[in-house]
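Supplementary Methods, section 5.1.

A reviewer requested that the exact input to the structure prediction be made available. We therefore reproduce it here, unchanged from the version used in the analyses.
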Amino acid sequence: MDFRSEKALVRAHHAAIAAATPDTMAEALARHTAPHWHWRGMHPFDERHGAEAVAAAFWSPLTAALTRMQRREDIFFAGLNEIDGFTGRWVVSMGHLMALFDAPWLGIRPTAKLAFLRYAEFHRIEDGRITETAQFFDIPHLMIQAGQNPFPPATGAHLVQPGPLGHGGLLYGETDPEEGRRTLAAINAMISDLGTWQLGLPLEEELARTWHDDMLWWGPAGVGATYTIPRYARQHSGPFRAGFRERTKTGHLARLAEGHFGGFFGWPNFTAIPTGGFMGLPASDKPGEFRVVDIYRREGDKLAENWIFIDILHCLKTQGLDVLGRMQGISGA
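The structure derived from this sequence is encoded token-by-token as follows.
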């Protein structure tokens, strides 16, 4: 499949954002999006419609706070969406927005220093316009950089996360369709094994079916990153499974792959009920909603790297904990 026009459109969209000021952002966003553009953002932005609404809620305040912004892109690919029968055409971008943190944003105190905001975004392209976007940012990681960590000690490591091993994630040109099919098959095999936590094997054996032993799992702030199957089982997968029950099946809205890279997002991806302990959460009878992006790199027939974005602030809000509201109250005291 040829996705050159869709890729060019998203790159032009990125360039328009980079050239815009807070006052001209709505016009810049409208240049490549449809009038009914459906935008999904992380808490507290949630869903917006149209360029003016997205600019007012998100991009204009962000670019006023994070100045001299550069997009440091690590992964870029396109494909057909398996979820709708391989009809929707989507483009995926992941990396960091690098900037000077010069003004408050969401109650986070500025540092006047270099800051990195992890991002992943999925764009649906129809008739030469972006009609749908999922925009995920690791807001808690920015809070940690500003010295406002809202979480208890994490099971993994908190880092500015690098791009893929080999630096081959920017698929601006054409690729071999067979490689994308192999990547999607590897992702689906992993989903089939791990999606409900009910395969019945010991955890490390379960993981070894679809992951390389030296896997890298780049988790969100509050959870952190971990390396190798044994450490991933010990530092995230095991504690996470112990901390929740009654996980639902995955509810992806888009899942696609190109070359050795692929990914998906869900809104929510799944729900699960806290049993207590994970990230300091108490036990609850109320399901937590997990809005999730996963981006993967395949090596051979198994998965080698995984970058994860979870709207943790939204998940905690579903449990009655408003992290941003609490932080803003402290900042204003």
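The radius of gyration is 19 Å. These observations are discussed further in the main text.
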